[in-house]
Amino acid sequence: MPMAKDFLLNVEGLTVSFDGFKAVNDFSFYVDEGEIRVLIGPNGAGKTTVLDLICGKTKATSGSIRFRRDELTKMSEHEIVNAGVGRKFQNPSIYEDLTVFENLEISFPRGHSVFGALTFKRDAEVVDAVQQTAEMIFLADSLDKTAGLLSHGQKQWLEIGMLLIQDPDLLMLDEPVAGMSVSERKKTAELLTRIADGRSVLVVEHDMQFVADIADRVTVMHQGKMLSEGSMEKVQNDPKVIEVYLGH
Amino acid sequence: MPTKGLKYLLPKPELIYFLVLACVIFMILPITLDIFRLNLVGKYLTYAFVAVGLVLCWGYGGILSLGQGVFFGLGGYCMAMFLKLEASDPESTAIQSTPGIPDFMDWNQLTELPWFWLPFSSFSFATIAVLIVPTLFAYIIGVAMFKRRVGGVYFAIITRAIASILTILIIGQQGYTGGVNGITDLRTLLGWDIRTDSAKYILYYINGILLFLCLLFAQFIRKSKLGRLLLAMREREDRVRFSGYDVANLKIFVFCIAALFSAIGGAMFTLQVGFMSPSFVGIVPSIELVIFCAVGGRMSILGAVYGTLIVNYAKTTFSESFPELWLFAMGALFIGVVMAFPNGLAGVYKAHIEPKITALMASIKRNGGLSISLLTNTAKQ
Predict the structure, then answer these.
(1) Is the pTM of this model over 0.95?
(2) Is the minimum CB–CB distance between B229 and chain A shorter than 8 Å?
(3) One domain, residues A47 and A111
(4) Which of B8, B128, B192, B256 is most buried, by CB atoms within 10 Å?
(5) Residues 6 or more apart whose Cβ sits within 8 Å of residue A32
(6) Which residue among B221, B232, B244 sits closest to A82, beta carbon to beta carbon?
(7) d(CA B282, CA B273)
(8) What is the ipTM of this complex?
């Protein structure tokens, strides 16, 4: 694919091999500014691994991941975060012993050095940002609650909130609605559409209804490779996709 | 504004706990104990520096170090080297074949002071060395381990190994370090005899003040965002990393602070006890230090001080009658505390005693109010 315009994220020839097994194999894809892209595929297709590679959790064997001008494969995790990439994990990954407020405050992008953390002040700017984010993720009334006491769905939202407060340009979510009730799913879909305003979102998801609700475009992976890409409708009618995935 | 800062640093209940401990250390103990016992308490309190450091490093940061004796020892040795040089002036060592060098060097056929001993004849250098050498050593260990993401049990084993290595090194290099006997026969600090009772009192108080400075600094860290980050990191290291923090730097910092506290404790140990030896550097003392912290409560900086005092009091009493059983008792105590009271004495206090005190205070207030109203009622009648 020639580079006619600037993409936010350019992944090219990405390969990672675990003891000879290529979990991601010569995989290329491009994410536009402001789009919601969903990665789907059967179990073991390498979706989560792609997210791990982009956020630096796993190091690529070869290939390149360019985010604007930064080559992410050469950067460490916290540098990638500070470049503007946020990542939500599959299981809600929050600090259960701290309150909702403190969870969000820690994620606020200030005072990230040792000295900065020691002299960090909870000023109006921080309180405002936490308040606003909490309202977005439906937790404005639970700020003083210990995070461990939240319901599963609320924990998922809290983690999304922790990413939002970082204000990343690319937000990566790994199965954000897993374990949520139907109404929570609907709320989450609305939330994602709202937060996609002004940033790109990359989602890994199994729930097809949810994917159809939110996706601008869908990328289908199979055995570490790209199988198909396009609108949900196009992908759903692709015979290759039906054969390996949707047909089951 | 400063009062507001103080209120934030020490909200009311914690301020009371700090004051209670200050009363115990600065008033009750000096009044009730004779100087021999008080000097022993002073020695125990030097271990409390290490225990407080462990609360930050282990309790908060989740980094278990089984080698804190290394930093305690390095701090102690830096102080001992200065005191030894002062005690080894050519006059007092005139009977040696080389006068003017420490006695153990003379016994080991050394004829001149080794180069690394030379700067320790300056008190300012020695004081700075007490603070810098152990912290720098911790920094090097921290960078080597945490940047490579070594953690948990592996880190504990490595610190244990470092404690062994340093002990073997000190014992092996007798001519430079005083070997297994350590550096003994220390007499004066800048001409001031530290063996007298009055000096022991003064050193006890200096020790107490330094301990409180460390406690206040630890409290400052606990109350800062760094304190919450350490908790967060202990729970979800990856989440902290993917919130844009360099986790290794946070760990290195807290490990260095723990080392710095230990070093101050070590130097005060040398001053109060009058010698330093490898038996305070190795594995056994390092693990004992962890036990003090665990018994007191690894999440409580004040608990760590009480834990240190109580375990050491028990050790002294118990080992006077059954010296060979003490180590087993200590092991059992550690296992018992970890299994039954994972938050130590501070945890027991918080769960069982504090609610009762709060209830008692509330009822006193209520009854007090009641009796006053009764009084006014009777007065009206």
Answers:
(1) no
(2) yes
(3) no
(4) B256
(5) A7, A8, A200
(6) B244
(7) 18
(8) 0.87
